Predict the 3D structure of the following.
Amino acid sequence: MPEVSPDADLPQLIAEAIAGAGLTIGSGDVFVVAQKIVSKAEGAIVSLADVAPSQAAAEWAGKYGRDPAVVEVVLRESRRIVRMDRGVIISETRHGFICANAGVDASNVPPGCVTLLPRDPDASAAGLQAGLGARLGRSVAIIISCTFGRPWREGVVNVALGVAGLTPLLDCRGGTDAFGRRLHSTVIAVADEIASAAELVMGKTAGNPVAVVRGAAAWLGEGNGRMLLRPPATDMFR
Amino acid sequence: MPEVSPDADLPQLIAEAIAGAGLTIGSGDVFVVAQKIVSKAEGAIVSLADVAPSQAAAEWAGKYGRDPAVVEVVLRESRRIVRMDRGVIISETRHGFICANAGVDASNVPPGCVTLLPRDPDASAAGLQAGLGARLGRSVAIIISCTFGRPWREGVVNVALGVAGLTPLLDCRGGTDAFGRRLHSTVIAVADEIASAAELVMGKTAGNPVAVVRGAAAWLGEGNGRMLLRPPATDMFR
């Protein structure tokens, strides 16, 4: 994939990369697309020189050696601060994602800039699904992915922000186990697991912003990324 | 794989299943093994009829319609309660895992019983690595996996509890992005991503307690599952 600019035709670039790699796309294939290139194509990028940090952002940034303009952008992208301590901001974005720095990120972005998460990752996924489907002449499923940290585990893993053409949750409730016992509480986040599988070949430094995951036919169908967000009523860590 | 009993020779059963499936094991292959069969083979299983619930366990279980004996086992397996509300117990196990019900689980277990997590999942992984390696005549890498929920996302995903022969964290700090910018904070939890990829073919109801993930040669090496545990000092959600 070439570097993606704000006026890029992302479905076209992905279709060209597929053709260039000699890939044949089949049913059950899911395209996992890094949030970063979706944000770039949608112009969800901010020049830090244009950001005037609030006094609070500047003070907090100074205390922890962070860039005041980046902290300001993080706060603007947040609708609720979950934790803000020790130089780390965990917040809820306007979409409802709870993650570090509200998804604001400076890696693989031109110097002096940061990307924001796409305005509506499900709409972005639906747009890619339509555009890529038209170019490939077949229906496709899309996951727009991003790496998130976890409260109690080291390292980040890839998760699904936006989804189109895929059922993100596999509900095993009502099924039975090997002893005929009914499963009561198991719902598998297959879209997140597919995103994590894809990350293994995408990588932060490998520069593969799109991966094709095969064999996912069982999970194709209706769905979106919002289904993966835990509602506030069952959130025990607000 | 047949049903695993407490006296089972797990490396032998896995080696037989590989031979039966006609699989050739190559370098860079990682065996992902469901915690459930490891616990069964190690006898980490409790008959609920033998458990006398404390009054506190009984009262809490009654309030939320849960089995008092299961709640008692969960509390015994916990060294710290993180949240205990609305019928849900999130606790820290003696190993340091923070998860629902301390990993105590009744699915795919004979009626009236629950499994505990293995006493030492890294030792279990090392044992499987040695035993399976001897039977296959080559070195192998092992992940013992379990599905964990997430505080802010619906559904569970597979993660790595015990690890042998694999570096669980890929440290990108010090690397550079496409713009030559140094990556400051990115560490990828590849062992968890491999476990999640494997779950897609293992499944709760599919009854495949072992999966082979190929192409992982880049991450083979020294490591263990404890490396994936966030230390208390950086835990913002205790």
